[in-house]
């Protein structure tokens, strides 16, 4: 196990170097001299000169790359070009709002989709199954934008059940009052594709020999489905939930934008609009690191759920 | 691939797949729907339909014909300018715009009166009275062209890379796999946004390039796995024995045998890229301002909805939902037809 983790950590190095190189090529080479981009956005020429000095535009590329690597290693990406706020501060203050919305969304979404998928898989071929599957196909084809626009209009603007948008200082008020509708929208969007996917996972398991054996030994249906099938189907489901995590770290861009949640996703969108490169570079590199770590955790989690899995 | 090359007794993979597909009623209906969309797109490309989408044909926010004309259609600035010549003046204050307004009035009086605007349009009008139906058609054209071309680009990149990685293995495989792991370490939407930030220019071609150059990863892994499976098959060894080059073996001998995987992926990615294009255009990082897209329509509809003008939202949503549903169902049918073992 330890050997496995160490080997995987060593494998991170080339991948991370690749990510750093990719981001560097994009922003320093293709992106070129920020003075052109910022000419209309920052009026103070001194500030632009300062920015050019910081990333070393006049230096050869290998020195620019070294500056970038030092920034990553020290975690000091300097200040945002648009707001002069320190990039590390932006991270620290935007992470909590993002997670307040996204973690409940992920957990509730996964549980609901699992329940629904178990139900339709159990009644495979029935009218319920077909109706829900058709509903899922249609639901999946509607853009996430439409879900957000319509839910916000109907539930917040027309019915007034939730605030249209906003964010406060208190964690509980944020969670209960301001996050409720964003969470509902997020769950509604993910429900259709997740239910379809999980249904196939359950169907794969339901025809296995062990299910017949469990039934033959007189176990109740709820125990067969709820314990035996669920536990085996949990392995691909856990993977699916875990691979959604890195994207969550970067935030659900659209949901944060519409509901004015001061999270990382909204910050990234603003940064793209303002050509605020330091922030985008930092987010990309750190989210890539988190992705690698989460992938490793997923593999370790496999082992915990399924003792048959051999890590190698 | 070439049916003529097969012996007459045994139908080719494609003939068999077509036979299976024809039996799939849902698949055929979806295919017909997708075909209908393609015809509309071709007609729009040729300028046969919706070429005058930018004309302000109706009154502002003209309601759909079936809903009937309910109000006067909002303020008509031009008409106001013509008639409303009296501006109330506070004593002692000179109207700073008086000269400008007079000039405008004269120009308008000289100009021929514009064509009367319709009170209703088939599916309603937008803020400027442009026909929503025509906008939806143009949006369909934009989205489908972006989706198709970007998917073709992604599939081409992925197939070539997957072929080299899977066929040669070894060092080549390591390098291409490294590239794959780098691209997949960054969440897809974040990568797309980062590239959009760097390119910093809107346009259909930019969107196609962004989506195509980032979207190859999943297909690459599948194609690579197929090539690993095929490279030691007997027919490939036989091709080697008769002196086929590596490139010939990769793209003449093996590719037709894995092309069903590629085709299904192509179909899947068209849908994926259409959805991405809508999001990018909505956010303002997508197609240019002079191009209509479902994304830009949805963007406008957000403000319209609050005024109770729901038709642009409905038109864009319906146009997209029907296409995506049909395309997804067709992809499922295609996969079932090409690989009957899956079911």
Keywords:
heterodimer, A: 312 residues, MetI-like fold, 14 helices, B: mainly alpha, 13 helices, disordered N terminus
What class, by secondary structure content of chain A?
mainly alpha
Alpha-carbon Rg of chain B, integer: 27 Å
Task: Briefly note the CATH topology name of the largest domain in chain B.
Answer: MetI-like fold
CATH class wording of the domain at 94-275 and 298-305 in chain A? Mainly Alpha
Which CATH architecture of the domain at 94-275 and 298-305 in chain A?
Orthogonal Bundle
Return Rg of chain A in Å: 24 Å
Determine the mean pLDDT of chain B: 79
Which geometry of chain A do the CA atoms define? globular
Number of helices of chain B: 13
Number of structurally distinct domains of chain B = 2
Query: Termini separation of chain B (Å)?
Result: 23 Å
- How much is the average pLDDT of chain A? 81
Low-confidence stretches of chain A: none
Q: Which percent range describes the beta-strand content of chain B?
A: under 5%
CATH homologous superfamily annotation of the domain at 94-275 and 298-305 in chain A: MetI-like
What's the CATH superfamily of the largest domain in chain B, by name?
MetI-like
Category by helix and strand content of chain B: mainly alpha
Strand content of chain A: under 5%
What does this structure look like?
- The complex is a heterodimer of chains A (312) and B (343).
- Chain A has helices spanning 2-30, 34-38, 45-55, 61-74, 87-122, 127-141, 144-158, 171-178, 180-206, 209-216, 221-249, 253-258, 264-274, 277-305.
- Chain A has 312 residues and is an all-alpha fold.
- Chain A has a domain at 94-275 and 298-305: MetI-like (MetI-like fold).
- Chain A is globular.
- The relative contact order of chain A is 0.12.
- Chain B has two domains: 12-55 and 131-342, MetI-like fold; 76-110, no CATH class.
- Chain B is built from 13 helices and no strands.
- Chain B has helices spanning 13-23, 25-45, 77-83, 98-110, 132-168, 170-185, 188-199, 204-214, 217-230, 234-241, 246-283, 294-306, 311-338.
- The model of chain B is unreliable at 1-6 and 72-76 (pLDDT under 50).
- The chains are: A mainly alpha (312), B mainly alpha (343).
- The interface between A and B is large, with 47 and 45 residues.
